[in-house]
Specification:
- By secondary structure, the protein is an all-alpha fold.
- It folds into 2 domains: 5-83, no CATH class; 87-161, no CATH class.
- 63% of the residues lie in helices and 2% in strands.
- The protein has helices at 5-11, 14-26, 30-44, 48-53, 56-64, 71-83, 87-97, 118-131, 134-147; strands at residues 101-102, 105-106.
- The protein has a two-stranded antiparallel ribbon with strand order 1-2.
- Helix 1 (5-11) packs across helix 6 and helix 2 (14-26) packs antiparallel against helix 5 (56-64).
- The longest helix has 15 residues, at 30-44.
- The two termini are 13 Å apart.
- The relative contact order is 0.15.
């Protein structure tokens, strides 16, 4: 598994970064909006009020060229990529591993926080491998693992199953 969100972000293509940034700016998390605007300000050398006034599409295009947005923002952008253009992956994986979800988002439930078994993980990986390109699969497994290393610990072995 890749160890940081920033490293994963740097490996994405321009188009993938743009898709992630577009989805991020559709509903930006307030706790990370300042970091995103700060990155835009730095890259474009803008005043803060100008950066805030940019249309979301322009903000997204600018943020997509930032190679090191910082770990929290990079993690949020990676999640945004999967919640946007790659949401089908979430549903495919969660259906295959047998976890309850709504449109790819886990339902809040105590028993859902239990670590995933190796058998379930293999089913999930197989379902993803049958439907999506291998680079997407590897990125998704990394993002899951980074979000909750205890729940998704078994995914560290995942690349062996591909």
């Amino acid at each position: 598994m890749e160890t940081t969100a920033t490293r994963l972000w740097k490996r994405l293509s321009r188009e993938e970064r743009l898709g992630a940034a577009r989805h991020f700016f559709q509903e930006p998390p307030q706790e990370l909006l300042g970091s995103a605007l700060g990155a835009i300000i730095k890259v474009r050398k803008l005043r803060p009020q100008v950066a805030r006034a940019l249309p979301p599409e322009e903000q997204a295009r600018t943020l997509a060229v930032v190679s090191d947005p910082g770990e929290p923002l990079a993690a949020s952008l990676l999640v945004a990529l999967h919640l946007g253009e790659r949401r089908a992956m979430l549903s495919t994986f969660l259906d295959a591993v047998g976890l309850a979800h709504e449109d790819g988002l886990l339902k809040d439930d105590e028993e859902l926080s239990a670590p995933l078994s190796e058998e379930a993980a293999k089913k999930g990986v197989a379902a993803l491998a049958a439907a999506f390109p291998k680079p997407w699969l590897e990125l998704y497994l990394n993002v899951l693992w980074m979000q909750d290393p205890q729940r998704w610990a078994v995914l560290e072995q995942g690349p062996e199953w591909l």
